[in-house]
Amino acid sequence: MNDTTNAAGTANATAGTAGTDAGWERRTAELWAAIDDHSEEDFRARMEKLAAELPPDHPAGIFERAAAFDSTGHSDLAVPLYRQALGLGLTGERRRRAVIQLSSSLRNLGRAPESVALLTAERDAGSDHLDDAVTVFLALALADTGREREAVSIALTALAGHLPRYQRSAANYARLLVEPDPAE
């Protein structure tokens, strides 16, 4: 199951919501906040009902449907919906979340190299508050492709910035996992 969507993940989901209104966004966020109060089937049915309030080709509705499948253990059903939402021009934070969640789902389905490619491109595309999420899922995908040292290196590099001390040491050790020590 992919846990990349949850109440915390939708708190700022209004970025890039062209064609949705505040009421729809609020109801969507409320449903995500209450995911654990519903059976998987009921949750998906409620999300389908919300998505049906939008035009059938609305990228936000398709994304939310994908995320509902994904968060209830159906990565296989989520992948084509994520791709469809992205293809229809999903924007803003939802676009970035879709790439992260699509990549995680691909990894869950045994397609880690594809996940690495998507997340590497996403990491290079820009920076925002989801950078650490991109890094976490990239590290997982790298580990699944046999690139464990690189996975640990990028995870440590991301973590180093959050340490109250030792940032420089942690960043250097992370770098040395994948690069030779220039002093040697």
Summarize the structure.
With 184 residues, the protein is mainly α.
Notes on the structure:
The chain is an all-alpha fold. The protein is 66% helix and 0% strand. It contains ten helices and no strands. Helix 3 packs antiparallel against helix 4 (59-71). It is elongated and about 65 Å long. It starts with 6 loop residues before the first helix and ends in an 8-residue tail after the last helix.
How far apart are the first and last residues' alpha carbons, in Å? 44 Å
* Percent of residues in beta strands: under 5%
Give the helix proportion (percent range). 55-70%
**What gross morphology would you assign?**
elongated
Question: How many helical elements?
Answer: 10
Biggest β-sheet: count, sense, barrel?
Answer: none
Structural class based on helices, strands and sheet pairing: mainly alpha
N-to-C series of helices and strands: HHHHHHHHHH
Poorly predicted segments: 2-16
Number of distinct beta strands = 0
Radius of gyration: 18 Å
**Average pLDDT level:** 90
SSE inventory with pairings:
Blueprint: H1 7-10, H2 22-33, H3 40-51, H4 59-71, H5 75-87, H6 92-108, H7 112-125, H8 131-144, H9 148-160, H10 167-176
Helix pairs in contact: 2-3, 3-4, 4-5, 4-6, 5-6, 6-7, 6-8, 7-8, 8-9, 9-10
